[in-house]
What we know:
Elements: H1 3-13, H2 21-27, E1 32-36, E2 39-42, E3 47-50, H3 53-56, H4 65-77, H5 90-102, E4 107-113, H6 116-133, E5 141-145, H7 154-159, H8 163-166, E6 175-178, H9 183-186, H10 192-210, E7 215-220, H11 236-246, E8 250-254, H12 268-272, E9 278-281, E10 293-298, H13 299-307, H14 322-337, H15 340-357, E11 365-371, E12 374-379, H16 395-405, E13 408-409, E14 411-413, E15 416-419, H17 427-448
Parallel strand pairs: 3-13, 5-6, 5-7, 7-8, 8-9
Antiparallel strand pairs: 1-2, 2-3, 4-10, 9-10, 11-12, 12-15, 14-15
Helix pairs in contact: 4-14, 5-14, 10-11, 15-17, 16-17
Bound molecules: pyridoxal-5'-phosphate.
Amino acid sequence: MNKNQLQQHDREHLLHPFTDFHDLGQQGTRVITSAEGAYITDIDGHQMLDGMSGLWCCNLGYSRREITEAIYEQLNKLPFYNSFFQCTTVPAIELADLLSEVTPAHMNNVFFTGSGSEANDTNLRIIRRYWDLKEQPEKRIVISRLNGYHGSTIGGASLGGMSGMHKQFQKLDYIEHIQQPYWFGEGGDMSPEEFGVYAARCLEEKILQLGPENVAAFIAEPIQGAGGVIIPPETYWPEVKKILDHYDILFVMDEVIFGFGRTGQWFGADYYGVKPDLMTFAKAVTNGYFPLGGTMVSDRVAEVIKSKGGEFTHGYTYSAHPAACAAGLATLNILRDEKIIDNVREVTAPYLAKRWAELADHPIVGEARSLGLVGALELVKDKGSRARFDDKCTAGGVCRDLSIKNGLVMRATGDTMIIAPPLIITTAQVDELVEKAHRALDDTARALA
Ligand SMILES: *Cc1c(COP(=O)(O)O)cnc(C)c1O
């Protein structure tokens, strides 16, 4: 099929995730056909620096044959077997071992799933099981944050704080949402430090309002990814940590984006010095090459759910899929053996921070923030008042399209442009990324004038 035919068949038969089907039908899809290193190429031969690592997953880029071969070899040896009914497979055990090693010291058990959404559903099941076994069944409510993202199953989407999603289904009623730590958008006249403490205290206020005896858990991403790379003020996590330590509630860190090196530490929990009871992972664990997710379970929780008898009535056909685990093993071995995370922390993240900050001088940029290998630009019409170009935040979409035209994949969340390039990006490629982003901003300013 040629490009037009492919787009025609796509329009007729393929329903895309998070998509306005009608609009997409009019515009036609971009057909991506190949990738190499940090670059992707479409069917027209247009090459783009992939500033989003696929969808926050291809942290090692697209050319790691070791992962492909590990999957291939495993598929030839034992393409599938389940881990129900007293059975297990070698790659599943080896990956569980390796995860116990690279995750924080107090986390030594893993429950595998096929995705991040399924892992957050698993968390809901573990949380309830834990409090039931502790004979505190009244602890039911899970607190989450507005504009957080925790996946798209009913459980994941209920935990998430995306109002557009909640409008389209019935949210689970035992989940409550609080203020997000988004200083640029919601900080008003407070300094970032004041606002960080304020946003953290919203958690305490909610706990007290619901009664700590009714609160089972708090879930959060270290930095909100899909919400627009919302990096909390420095005062936020230390204050949240104090609150979490004070009340007897479980803490779930959703590391689906920030796990495996994106901050320059193995996990967001390491970066912020917090101690989760459960830790969701997915995406980069296999470098995006094979679907795999899971949740790391702390010793505190594992002790209860493992030592008390009774079946945990939960699991998926593809929990601990051997080929997925082989992909995970190959990926984590590369991350560790090639010291990729050290290089992010010591070389590329500081370099990106310096170059990305220069974009704050652009006339339509209200803020340029970055941490590790993520970055965001707030597009504004007026820097002083932070006024957007319009109420519907359409500038982001314009900028995204112009960025792609300029050979850089950036994503738009409303009028916030975001990047999360592969961890293997070089400093020369960071220069290329920033130059292309600058050009996209110039073109956007011209298009919106
Ligand atoms: C992507 C994402 C999920 C959901 O993962 P899926 O594999 O798409 O189900 C959950 N949490 C966060 C923070 C994510 O970014």
